[in-house]
Amino acid sequence: MAREEKGVSEYRTRRILAIASGGGHWEQLLILQPAFSGCDVHYATTLEGLADHSRLSNAHLIPDCNRDEKLRILYSAFSLFRLLMRIRPDIVVTTGALPGLLALMIARRFGIRTVWIDSIANAEEMSLAGQTAGRHSDLWLSQWPDVARAAGADYSGAVL
């Protein structure tokens, strides 16, 4: 990812919001840290203490949700909207799951570039959130070449 973006009269460091649910999604996102070198990175996750455990600054806690909890989805979306308006990232990168998808959907409405990286665990088919993410991502990736080909996503290798 490019480190600087030329404005009208200045250069500024790109701001990235890197977001993932806890567990494997979070672990895969952390492996991507070297790709964010030189950028102003804000991290967001659903589990309290994960960012502290990973020794990250600029970390934010977001509410978790799943497809069966409609009110929780709305609460999560509202929280993500507020976070996006406060951080104002140039790019949102997520490894899933539903909170990451919501962040992409909201970010895209505001012209923020978006990247979805489907979990390495989805070796047979794109995750449900990943299938939806294809319509809301500037870059839509699977970590499995066969899954990428079947879904119409891009494949650039695996994080793990």
TrEMBL record:
Superkingdom of this protein's organism: Bacteria
Keywords on record: Transferase
Molecular function terms from GO: transferase activity
GO biological process: dolichol-linked oligosaccharide biosynthetic process
Gene3D superfamilies, per database record: Glycogen Phosphorylase B (3.40.50.2000)
Protein name: UDP-N-acetylglucosamine--LPS N-acetylglucosamine transferase
